[in-house]
Amino acid sequence: MSNTRYRGENSTVQSVVLFVIFFALFLGGIFAFSFWSLESFAHAFVPAGVGIGLCFLSLVIPQTFLGRSDSAGE
Fold first, then answer.
1. If you write DSSP's letter for every residue of 5-71 in order, what string do you get?
2. Rounded to an integer, what distance in angstroms lies between the CA atom of residue 64 and that of residue 68?
């Protein structure tokens, strides 16, 4: 039994586009970790910072800023 009155927050196309963008950010963060080595300061902390930053953004932006704006009252 489906609810015909249900209307999603985003259209299907918008949801797919947002998923692709944030999944690419997440994969970019994982890819940045492949340059991680302990040879010097730059080789150790720059890729780690970029990787953690991209993974953080790919998870926090959708959960915080793209979430439902009226969900606090539920």
1. T---SS-HHHHHHHHHHHHHHHHHHHHHGGG--SSSHHHHHHHHHHHHHHHHHHHHIIIIISS-TTG
2. 9
Q: Per-residue pLDDT for the chain (74 aa), expressed as one digit of tens each?
A: 566 666 666 788 888 999 999 999 999 999 999 988 888 888 889 999 999 999 999 999 888 877 665 555 55
From CA 44, how far away is CA 60, in angstroms rounded? 24
Contacts of residue 71, defined as CB under 8 A and 6 or more positions apart, other chains included, come to none
User: pTM for the complete prediction?
Assistant: 0.73
